[in-house]
Structures are given as structure tokens and as C-alpha cells.
Amino acid sequence: MKNKLIAPSILSADFLHLEDEIKKIEEAKADLIHIDVMDGHFVGNLTFGPFIIEQVKSTAHLPLDVHLMIESPDMWIDTYAKAGADYITVHAEACMHLHRAVQHIKELNKKASVSLNPATHPSVLEYVAEDLDMVLVMSVNPGFGGQKYIDNVNEKIKFLDDMRKNRGYNYLIEVDGGVGEKNISMLSKLGVDVFVSGSAIFKSKNYKETISKFRSLL
Ligand code: DX5
Ligand code: ZN
Predict the structure, then answer these.
(1) What is the pTM of this model?
(2) Which residues, chain by chain, have CB under 5 Å from ion ligand 2?
(3) Which atom of ligand 1 is nearest to the CA of 139?
(4) Chain segment 157-175, per-residue pLDDT in tens
(5) SS3 of 19, please?
(6) β-pairing, 134-138 with 64-69?
């Protein structure tokens, strides 16, 4: 079976005890730490920037999966690479020069990923898909944790899985928003490789049990 990765989103973590939260998800055998950067413009919420990511990097052992929900992400790629991001995701909707942004991330030897909002058709990736390490499919409108999974995203996942099979591309498919016990198995069957989960993990009593349960469903 292909490797399936669980990426807890620290958006739902307890920020007064962030270091402990990171330790707990590492002990629970998560695969990536998903970090949601929001600027209050591209999305109607504001989180944190490179300073917090540097701090997370100094204590984390897992790779950092940095999801930039910001305007003009092109201008910030160097900064987030330097802060310790391993995967850098930019939104297709926010990039005037998407091809250049992808090449820039790769030149810095980081994993290049592009995210699509729920209303964006995956055909926008037509001419960059072969260069991507990952496609992040938003399954809620970005900005907040704890929202409901949007069902027609299934079609988009299928489209992306077919495209990589037909053309021999290697990108991973990551799904973000409303992922939990109820849909993780179905998403895995559709071809998803990386499962972001915020509230379903951090609002659970025992992260280890929750992540093991997720794995048993893949
Ligand atoms: C939303 C973020 C997500 C969020 C997911 O804009 O990109 O990563 O943390 O949270 P849940 O899993 O609670 O939907
Ligand atoms: Zn995210």
C-alpha cells in the first residue's frame, strides 16, 4: 500500500502549551505538522507568521507542512523557507505567477504544493502539475477549523488522481477541512495521500487513539 500521511493542523491546538501539543502529536505518530498561516486578507482570519514557525521548528522532529492562506504568497516564499517550512503550499487563487512561485519553492529545495479553494477547478494546474510535489485540496472554505466537509470535492480528488495516473505525475493529494473518522476511509479510496485534520485530533481526548483509529481506516 502507498504511504498515507496524517498531518494534524495546529490551528486547533492549545497555543498556551504549543510545545506540549507538538510533543503529543509526535508521540501519537503523526507524519507531518500542518501549519495554517492566515493574513486576514486572503481569508477572514489571522493566525501567525514566520516567527512562530521558527519556534515550532526548533522543537519539532516532524516535517513542517506550511499552508499559506495569504495574499501575494510569492513574496514570502524565501521567508517561510528560512523559517523552517519543509512543504510550502501557495493558493492558486492568490498567485499571479503560479509557475514562477512553484519553481521558486523548488529552487529552495522545499516541497512545492499548490492549494485549490472549493470553487476552483483543478484544470488551473494543467501546466504546473508535473512540477508539483503535492496538491492541497481545500474541502472547506479556508479560514477556520471545525467546518463541514464539502461533498463535491470528491470529484476534484478523483480528477487529480486520474490526471496523475494518466500522465505519470508524482504529486501527493492532500485534503484539508472537515476530515475525520466518518470520511477518511472514503477519501483514502479516492486517492488521497495526506490527511490534514485539526479539530478531530486536537479536540479529542487522546491524540494517539484518534490517530491510530484514523490509520486503521486507511
Ligand atoms: C482551514 C485550514 C485547516 C483547518 C482544518 O482553513 O486550512 O487546516 O485547520 O481544520 P478541521 O480539520 O477542523 O476542519
Ligand atoms: Zn490548512
Answers:
(1) 0.98
(2) 36, 67, 176
(3) 14
(4) 999 999 999 999 999 999 9
(5) helix
(6) unpaired
